[in-house]
Structures are given as C-alpha cells and as structure tokens.
Amino acid sequence: MIFLQLPELFQDNLSILSIIKQPFLLPLPEKIMPPNSGTLLTTIDSPADLRKLTPSDLLRLADELRTFILDVVSTNPGHLGASLGVVELTIALHYLFNTPDDLLVWDVGHQAYGHKILTGRRNLFDSLRKWGGISGFPVRSESEYDSFGTGHASTALSAAIGMATAAQIQKQYQRQHIAVIGDGALTGGMFFEALNHAGNSRLNLLIIINDNGISIDKSTGMLKDYLQHIRDNNLHASLFEAFGVPAFGPVNGNNLEQLIPALQHMQQIHGVRLLHIATTKGKGFEMAEKEQVRFHAPGTFNRKTGESMQDKSQHQLFQHVFGITLTQLAAINPKIVGITPAMSTGSSLDLMMKQFPYRTFDVDIAEQHALTFAAGLATQGLLPYCVIYSTFLQRAYDQLIHDIALQQLPVVLCIDRAGLVGEDGATHHGIFDLPFLRTIPNMIVAAPMTGNELRNMLYSAQIDRKGPIAIRYPRGKAPDYDWEKPFETIASGKGRCITTGDNIAVVSIGAAGNNVQKAIQIVSDEQIFPAHYDLRFLKPLDEELLHDVFSRFATVITVEDGLLNGGMGSALIEFAHEHNYTSRIIRLGIDDQFVPHGKPEQLYEYCGFDPLHIAYHLRSSWLQSEQ
C-alpha cells in the first residue's frame, strides 16, 4: 500500500487553514484494477454496501460511477455536467455519513445522478426521465434517501434548516444535516435568506458550497468573481463568516485524498459550519470539461467524441425563433434590452448578447430581481424583453403583480418552456402560467401557435407599448419551416379562424392548436369537418370572435396545454355564462394534478389532448349533433 503525504486541512482554530504535513490516513491502491477484473459498482445496492469498501476502493469506484453515468446519459439524454462534477463528493458523503438517517439535500437536484445510483437505483438508471421511470431530480416518494425534492435552485438550505430544527425539537441531536449548494444555486436570494437564519442558530448543519463557477451558462456578477478569487489564491471565504457561520476551504472536491479528511473534520464539529469545495463541471469527460454550457444537458451524443446526435431537421426551435427575432428587433429599436435569469443559452438570448452585449443582461438565478430590474428599466423609457422559463416565473409572481402590473409598466415577458416540457417532469412543466396570468389586472396574455406567430407577437409588442404583456411559447420545434417572413402586426386581443366548419367549433390557444390540426386531419376522412379557432390571446379575449362561435355552434371544444382550472376553457365558460349562451363546452387540457415526466407526446396522451383524444371528442360530438 501507498500512503500519500497530504496537508492537514485544518487547525483547531475552526476558521484558519494551515499546511502541516501529515500522512494521509486512508490507504490508496498501488494501481487501479483493470476493467475486466469486475466492477465495484455492481456490488453497491445502498450506501451500507459502499461503507463496506476499503478506502483504497474509492478511487476505482469513482471512475466506474463516472463511466456509468456517461454510458447511460449519452444515449438517454439528461443533465450530465453537474453530476460528473460531484462524483467524488457523492461517494465521500455516503461513505462517511449515515444516510438516510443523516439527511442530505442536493441543490440543484440535477447534481444527484450519482446519488441515485448509489442509493438503490442503479438498475433503474436507464429509465431516467422516461415515462414510468425514475426522475431526473430527487423525489421524496422515489427513495428514502431523497430527503427533499429539489427541481428549482437555492431551496436546499432553507429545507435543511427546517429539518435540523425539527431534529433539535425532537432531541435527535446526533443527526447530521447536509445541504450541497452548487451549480449556480448560490446566486439565488433564498440561499442568503436562509444563511441569515442559520447564522445565529445552534443547529447541527453542514453547508457544502460546490463551487464550479457555472450554473447553466457561466455565472455572472461579483459573487462569481469573489469565489474565483478565493479559488485562485487559496484564500479563506470570510464572506460566510460575516453571517456567523464558520467557513473552511477551499478544498479540491474532485480529489478524494483531500475531500475525505475535510469531511471527516466537519463530522467532528457540532453546529452550523460551511465547507467550500472547488469542482469542475463535466469532470472526467474532456468535451464536457471544455464545453460546459453544451454539456449541461447535451441530449444524445457520441460517447467517444462528444459529437451531438440530436435531430437535425430544418424546423427551428421556438427559442431560436425568439432569439433571432429579438436580435433583429434590437437592431431597429434602440430602446429594447434583453434580460434573463441564468438562461441566456437555453432561451437563445445569447444571440442578442453577442450582438448587443451592453443591452443584454444575465442576472444569474435571480428571478425576482430579473423582473424588478426590468421594471426599473421600463420607468426610464427602455423596453425590456425579459425571457424566463414558465416554471421559474412562478418564483417572481409578487414582482410581476406589484412591481410591473400594478404600475402598468411596459415590460415584455417572454415565457419560454410553457406547457408540458417533457422529461424534466413536474418541477419544470409550465402548466400554471395561463391561470395565474389571467387574474392579474393590466396584463395582456398571448400564446402563439407557430414560429411566425411568435415572431409577429414579439414585433407587435414593441409598437406603442403602454403596459405589460406576456407571450408564452413551448419547448421544442416550431411547426412551420417558413417562419421568418416580413414582420406583420398582430392586434392585441384578436384571434383567427384557421379552419371553417359545421356543427362543432374547436377553440385552442398556443401550440396546443397544432394537435387540433392533426386531429381535424384524422377525422376529415370520416367526413367530419369542425371549425378551428386560434384564440391567440387569453387576455383580453376576442369577444367578437367568441360571440360568433357561441352564436353558431352548439358544441364548443376548448384545447389548451395548461391547467383547466382557471385556464382558457374556464374563461370561455365564464364568457358563455355572462352572455347567456347555452352551447355545450368540452374542455381538454390538464386536470388538477402535477404531471409526471416523459416524452411530450406521451404526456399529451396522458392528459387527454393528443391528436387521437381530440379526434375522439370530435367524432363523438359530431355523432351527437347528427342525432
């Protein structure tokens, strides 16, 4: 056996580092066992099995775990870079701490692939993010090792404080609580709110800052610069001690010989303490280390070369339609500025950022700040286009109401990933925005069905803007190849008739209308010809169009890719009631539930507004009308 000579990481003084040479207490193998000698990973069905390993096995296990993640995620797309970066940390935590009795919370949860594999889900890992398979995030109902669901960033410390407080009340003084804060989650305001709470408590709580300098895109702002300075100069992170939390590090989080002694030292300390570790996102796969933004969630890729294996069809993504169009608009309208909370590449705002860097702002994972920042810009005559994923807009609802709508400020909210987003599942579906937006006074709420409609809504939004407008559009490809046509104005609150017909009218909003068009094609062979209206705007409603629909059709079917409660169908029921219409209204959309993960087409079928379900309702309604 070889014993490495490594520095002692800490003195008795809890906040000052020293470099005292001392033999590493854990023996390391003289050589890594060759791959054909069997795998350790297949023997690990729980952390209890992991703890049976000798310390000399851990480096080999790290290699096997990293290889296993790469093998699966290269063919079954998911979040890759973050989990590769915390392989050593995952092993060390489960090796040293008594999980699940000791409670471990990952922030953000897409770091937790290795955690899932080591906690009894190795044989299920190829079902990751598939219909009926395991989630891409920690889920309490999935495993007792998932102590808290963390699909959104910056929540772990608040949750861990709650757990640690409960342990204190219940006199479980020896229980450890570990919150791993990484992948940009440190920039969310909730973290500092919780840190302020933790600092004057006596809770048994370990905060681990997983500092990799990136969320989805490269981190921005002074906090990133501060941590970079700490890492580069091996300095002490005194910022956290200003909150009353003893801080240690930085430690190389991809080096078990440093990480394990550091965590052992943390185990000996009772109370709130913080360990700063530095890791490399994408560690162990050269392309992922070089292209960290692309390999955050790369889709399918060649396991050896890293080359993308994604569908290369000519249809443009909705997000690209947004990015290309906004860049063009910014070139002709100098008042336009772009804002996003940590989603510049995912939203394609990076296209404008490259051309107009001083008019484009990535504010990191800070949704509340993003909206009020936009409001401030609007007070001074600028026209902010704030692009934010639907699921993350939920985090800034108060700012939308109080800082934007109440003051009737001209802010254009571009709501990406609206509707069912697919494999990311319940934490990321954008199904609440239609109901919660339509209740806000002064708001205009629009939803394009095609790429060209999105383009023209973005164009129309900057013409004589007097108040806020929300334009919501889905993840995925726009249905039209020829979306990039000359700009045309779309009047606020005006829908359109796509298909004329008899007996039945279908009213849809947004991209769900594309499923309606497919359903109409299906039933046309049966000589069933319903009318189809694209409402375009949930607020204000096109009352002229709706009067025409309800005065002519005995059956109206509504189709939307959001919650039915309070959504577009509800709005049409209210309209019909207020104007004494007696048409039968059938609402298709999402029932009162959190929708699981799976391919979008599977989720449309599950929720009942895929083309076949819509065709069924068209057929049955047509037969009733003929009787």
Please provide a written account of the structure.
The protein is an alpha/beta fold and 627 residues long. It has three domains: 5-296, Thiamin diphosphate (ThDP)-binding fold, Pyr/PP domains (Rossmann fold); 318-474, Thiamin diphosphate (ThDP)-binding fold, Pyr/PP domains (Rossmann fold, 3-Layer(aba) Sandwich); 496-626, 3-Layer(aba) Sandwich (Rossmann fold). It contains 23 helices and 19 strands. Strands 9-8-10-11-13-12-17 form a seven-stranded mixed beta sheet, sandwiched between helices. Helix 2 packs across helix 4 (87-96), helix 4 (87-96) runs parallel beside helix 10 and helix 12 (318-332) runs parallel beside helix 18 (451-461). The chain is globular and about 75 Å long.
